[in-house]
């Protein structure tokens, strides 16, 4: 599943203007650490969800579209249902996930809000260091 996530573009969206202002090496450091964090976060969630069901809702998009949303409903063991929407982009001839909305909450917007505040207060290097430290704790 994770090779189908475009972590570089997600990183760009999450950091917003801070991405544009950062040197390429810093952009790459952030993308690397952020992708590891996402693997831990969503990998753990998927492992915990092993006995649930995912229903893909009816879907249609134009043949020449470069963006689309795939809507699903996730049913857990206890019968509760959560909408999970995947925003995909086709920028390199392959469809890749750019955002995930769970119960209407955007992963990108959530991280952008959280990380934007850290970058503003402490700088992008401190943000990368904090994510790297969190990744080490998750090993």
What does this structure look like?
With about 140 residues, the protein is of the alpha+beta class. It has one domain (about 1-135): Tgt2/MlaC (Nuclear Transport Factor 2, Chain: A). Helices cover about 50% and strands about 25% of the residues. The chain contains five helices and five strands; from the N terminus they run H-H-H-E-E-E-E-E-H-H. The chain has helices at about 5-15, 15-20, 25-50, 105-120, 125-135; strands at about 55, 65-75, 80-90, 95-100, 105. Strands 1-2-3-4-5 form a five-stranded antiparallel beta sheet. The longest helix has 25 residues, at about 25-50.
Strand order of the largest sheet: 1-2-3-4-5
Structural class: alpha+beta
Q: Could you say what the CATH topology is called?
A: Nuclear Transport Factor 2, Chain: A
Beta-sheet strand percentage?
15-25%
What is the gyration radius calculated from CA atoms? 16 Å
What's the name of the CATH homologous superfamily? Tgt2/MlaC
Distance between the termini: 20 Å
Share of residues in helices: 40-55%
Number of strands: 5
Q: What's the SSE pattern?
A: HHHEEEEEHH
Major sheet size, sense and barrel closure: 5 strands, antiparallel
Model regions low in confidence, pLDDT < 50 over at least 5 residues: none
Structure annotation, total helices = 5
CATH class: Alpha Beta
CATH architectural arrangement: Roll
Number of domains: 1
Shape type: globular
């Amino acid at each position: 599943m994770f090779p189908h996530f475009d972590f570089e573009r997600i990183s760009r969206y999450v950091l917003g203007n801070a991405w544009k202002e950062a040197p390429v090496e810093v952009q790459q450091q952030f993308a690397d650490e952020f992708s590891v964090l996402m693997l831990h976060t969503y990998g753990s969630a998927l492992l915990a969800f092993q006995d649930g069901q995912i229903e893909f809702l009816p879907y249609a998009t134009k043949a020449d579209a470069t963006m689309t949303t795939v809507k699903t409903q996730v049913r857990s063991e206890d019968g509760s249902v959560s909408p999970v929407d995947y925003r995909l982009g086709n920028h390199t001839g392959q469809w890749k996930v750019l955002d995930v909305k769970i119960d209407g909450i955007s992963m990108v917007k959530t991280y952008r809000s959280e990380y934007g505040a850290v970058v503003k207060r402490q700088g992008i290097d401190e943000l990368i260091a904090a994510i790297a430290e969190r990744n080490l704790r998750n090993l």
